[in-house]
Amino acid sequence: MTTFDVKGMTCGHCAQAVTKAVREIDAQARVEVDLASGTVRVESTQPPASIEQAIEEAGYEARLRAA
Known about the structure:
Blueprint: E1 2-7, H1 12-25, E2 30-34, E3 39-43, H2 48-57, E4 61-64
Antiparallel strand pairs: 1-3, 1-4, 2-3
Helix pairs in contact: 1-2
């Protein structure tokens, strides 16, 4: 799974918005949002840059976390 640090998520609606954004580019993606740590973990066939862009287009600041 790929981990992203995401700023701006504060509630369940935010988690749903991020999940929806990722699934719009990969319907089969597995998305785990942790509001407390501000992280999103994604298992997807899409490249990390595409996932990061989708999250940002949903209105959040996303950065791929270094391994």
